[in-house]
Design goal:
The complex is a heterodimer. Chain A is α+β, with helices and mostly antiparallel strands. Chain A is built from eleven helices and ten strands. In chain A, β6 and β7 form a beta hairpin. Chain B is α+β, with helices and mostly antiparallel strands. Chain B has two domains: about 80 residues, Pleckstrin-homology domain (PH domain)/Phosphotyrosine-binding domain (PTB) (PH-domain like, Roll), CATH 2.30.29; about 240 residues, no CATH class. A seven-stranded antiparallel β-sheet of chain B has the order 4-3-2-1-7-6-5. In chain B, a hairpin with a 7-residue loop joins β1 and β2. In chain B, α6 packs across α8 and α9 packs antiparallel against α10. Classes of the chains: A alpha+beta, B alpha+beta. At the A-B interface, α1, α2, β3, α3 and α8 of A face α2, α3, α9 and α10 of B.
Chain lengths: ~375, ~375
């Protein structure tokens, strides 16, 4: 790999990421995007998407150079039209009959790994830094191998649960049932970290900057460590909350209008707990992934804090609820600014050493279909 | 002279350079020993806020600069592409932004309040009857499996109600496929459902609340109203259109924004649903007035339904569960619960939870039927 020979005892320079976007400026871009999208019955949405990405990429700087998003809106529009047709057909099929809807879902699920690969390739191919494109190896075979194992295990899990439920209906006294369910839940929980490691590893090692490969230095051990800690915290939080709720329910049993009060209390407790867990996972997963990215000796460093992310999510949610979404641009900008402020690149060699790859066309189809079904493809 | 960085396109190497342009339209770099290039061969990225501009040269090299003003000036002097920078002009005109803000908010409100319901009504009318039939398939089977038990009503009582129902259908056009079914509700208590394929399901618990068959007829009419107005189909279309609308407005639905959009969507959908309940009430009310049935029967039934969910009623039902001659005792229980409920309702106010409800408040609904009672001919 280029430049590795240059890495010596020479000082490592910490280059911070900088985000210079402004909420007011982005609000103007966003509201014009929305208006033009409505006026053109959705056609402008492809241009809106490109302009939004370009605003965020262009405002992100590393070592005095910006990132650039180069996707062609026409290509995105084509992808969106196809995705829309697929989405309508899928929705129609689910309301027609459970069998047709079910088979449509299975077919789509089978295509998920392929969409994911195409989507990654499209996004990275259209990301540029210092006039050198990122890239993604379209290794479909590997993608299906990575996805097949967890999909099979999940299928097996659902099958076993339904079988167990049938047993329970015939024999309601069965004592083994809760134990069996616990064992199943535990085995799923234990499998999950391994799965996430596999998928993240797949995404990272197939990514390239120019012709240089990314390396992923994390191991399954790191992922187990992170998730076991999370599970412990979740048990503490939900266990404690369940205990509190049961006490409250008992004391309020006599009062009238109880159901309304309980709903409000559950929402008051559940919502922050849910947001906290969301922020915790987001912070730890992102840090774990970025801190193990290595491109020819240059290493990313990410120091997201759960507390600050939680504060961002809570204030963003409140602001957007109170303004019915009008403050979304502000929320997006401050989130991006925070993320950039805790991310940096520890440069060991020279950032000017990377070589470009040959040009090739990418289809926007995968990315757009992925978006329609709201899959998390963030990288 | 425009200061910026030059990238040759083969490597990520960065050079600080100054770009110059001449009146003949040629562009070059002070520090670099490369031939000048005519501007029309260079792709200049359009301006987005204050993000850097990129000039892409035919040989794959690129010039990047943060000096937007200088690039704009160069584009204005050397080229005359009227579309270049149009989006940025719109995005940076304060008056235009204020105007779009008002227009978008107003449009969004009008579209959700009137556009989506009207659109789905039109579309539901246009779709063939089979569309509803397809949707209803298997719904009752699924409910039987998970929710209901077989009805415990006597066959004679069931037949009597079926005759009543069929008599109603004689006066209603296009109702050949409608049928009525009875089930023991269990957990879902006193309730009635109109399935899209024309089957109306009554729970035994609801039937037992009635002292007079006309009370049940009023609920039958409400459910027929749902069927006649194709509410299931419309609800599906409305949910779909709303999801599409939200997707268009928010751009890409990311994980964090989907939690946030969930609450407004819930509010809007319960608003749609409340509108449909009111429509079904109107249908019932119109039929009753046309055929000289006292609308008060519906009001009485609504009061009973509301009271049947109270703890007092549940407790009372438990107490009599072992006794014989149950029906008259049930009536006693429900009437007591209604009385108690009325006393309590005098104090209560509309809470925030009501806005998330799928049904308008019972008080409002009862009020509508009571109003008409006083003006209509009383006749049993």
């Amino acid at each position: 790999m280029e430049g590795t020979s240059e890495v010596s005892a020479a000082a490592i320079i910490k280059e911070p990421f900088k985000f210079t976007g402004k909420a007011g400026e982005f609000f103007a871009i966003w509201i014009v995007n929305v208006a033009l999208t409505i006026l053109t019955l959705g056609i402008y949405s492809a241009w809106a998407k490109v302009r939004t990405h370009q605003y965020f990429y262009g405002n992100t700087f590393l070592a005095d150079a910006s990132f650039r998003y180069t996707a062609n809106p026409v290509q995105i529009l084509k992808g969106r039209i196809i995705a829309f047709i697929v989405f309508v057909l899928y929705s129609a099929s689910t309301s027609m009959s459970p069998i047709i809807g079910g088979s449509a879902l299975i077919i789509l699920m089978l295509l998920v790994p392929a969409f994911m690969v195409m989507s990654m390739a499209f996004r990275l191919r259209n990301s540029m830094y210092r006039n050198v494109r990122f890239n993604f190896d379209k290794n479909f075979k590997q993608a299906y191998i990575v996805f097949a194992i967890p999909v099979l295990i999940t299928g097996l899990y659902i099958f076993t649960v339904t079988q167990l439920q049938n047993v329970l209906i015939e024999n309601p006294e069965a004592k083994f049932f809760p134990i069996a369910m616990l064992v199943l839940a535990l085995s799923m929980g234990l499998m999950f970290p391994w799965w996430e490691y596999m998928i993240t590893n797949f995404k990272v090692v197939h990514a390239k900057y120019g012709v240089s490969d990314f390396k992923f230095t994390a191991s399954t051990k790191n992922y187990y460590g992170m998730y076991l800690k999370l599970y412990g915290l979740m048990i503490l939080i939900f266990g404690g909350m369940g205990f509190l709720l049961s006490i409250m329910m008992r004391t309020m049993d006599q009062g009238s209008g109880m159901s309304g009060a309980v709903v409000v209390i559950i929402m008051l407790f559940m919502f922050p707990a849910y947001l906290w867990i969301f922020a915790y996972i987001q912070a730890k997963r992102t840090n774990l992934m970025y801190n193990n990215l290595d491109i020819s000796g240059n290493k990313v460093q990410s120091e997201l804090k759960t507390g600050y992310l939680l504060y961002l999510y809570v204030t963003n949610t409140l602001a957007m609820m109170l303004t019915l979404g009008l403050l979304m641009p502000w929320a997006k900008i401050r989130t991006a600014r925070y993320r950039a402020s805790v991310t940096s690149l520890n440069v060991a060699g020279d950032l000017g050493q990377y070589t470009s790859a040959q040009e090739q066309q990418q289809s926007a189809l995968g990315e757009e279909i992925g978006e329609m079904f709201d899959m998390d493809l963030g990288f | 002279m425009i200061k910026g960085s030059y990238f040759n396109g083969e490597t990520s190497d960065k050079k600080d350079v100054s770009l110059y342009y001449k009146d003949d339209g040629n562009v070059g770099f002070e520090e670099l020993d490369i031939a000048e290039v005519p501007l029309h061969l260079i792709n200049i990225s359009s301006r987005i806020g204050n993000t850097p501009r990129y000039l892409s040269f035919p040989d794959g090299s690129q010039f990047e600069t943060e000096d937007n003003a200088a690039i704009d000036k160069m584009v204005n002097t050397l080229s005359n592409d009227p579309l270049h920078g149009l989006a940025h002009k719109l995005e940076s005109t304060k008056g235009f932004i204020l105007f779009t803000l008002v227009a978008v908010v107003l449009f969004g409100w009008l579209f959700i309040q009137y556009g989506i319901p009207a659109m789905s009504k039109q579309l539901a009318e246009m779709l063939p009857e089979e569309a509803s039939q397809y949707m209803g398939q298997g719904v009752l089977d699924a409910m039987d499996k998970n929710l209901f038990e077989p009805s415990q009503l006597e066959q004679q009582r069931q037949d009597e109600l079926r005759i009543l129902f069929n008599d109603l259908l004689k006066n209603i056009e296009g109702s050949q496929s409608y049928k009525i079914e009875f089930r023991l509700g269990g957990k879902i208590k006193a309730n009635a459902f109109a399935l899209p394929n024309g089957t109306i399901v009554f729970t035994d618990e609801l039937i037992n609340l009635a002292e007079n068959n006309l009370e049940i007829v009023s609920i039958m009419l409400h459910e027929i109203g749902h069927l006649k107005r194709k509410h299931s189909l419309r609800a599906t279309i409305q949910q779909f259109s709303l999801a599409m609308f939200v997707m268009v407005v928010t751009g890409d639905v990311s994980t964090s924004s989907s939690i946030i959009t969930a609450i407004p969507i819930m509010l809007v959908e319960s608003g749609f649903s409340q509108g449909m309940e009111t429509e079904a009430d109107t249908y019932s009310l119109d039929y009753m007035r046309k055929h000289n049935i006292d609308p008060n029967y519906f009001a009485i039934m609504m009061e009973k339904l509301e009271a049947s969910y109270s703890q007092e009623y549940v407790a009372c039902m438990e107490a009599i569960s072992k006794e014989s001659n149950k029906q008259s005792k049930i009536i006693q229980c429900i009437n007591d619960a209604v009385k108690l409920n009325k006393e309590e309702n005098g104090k209560a106010n509309k809470t925030a939870v009501d806005y998330f409800s799928t049904h308008p408040s019972s008080e409002e609904r009862i009020g509508r039927f009571r109003e008409k009672t006083s003006s209509s001919v009383k006749k049993k």
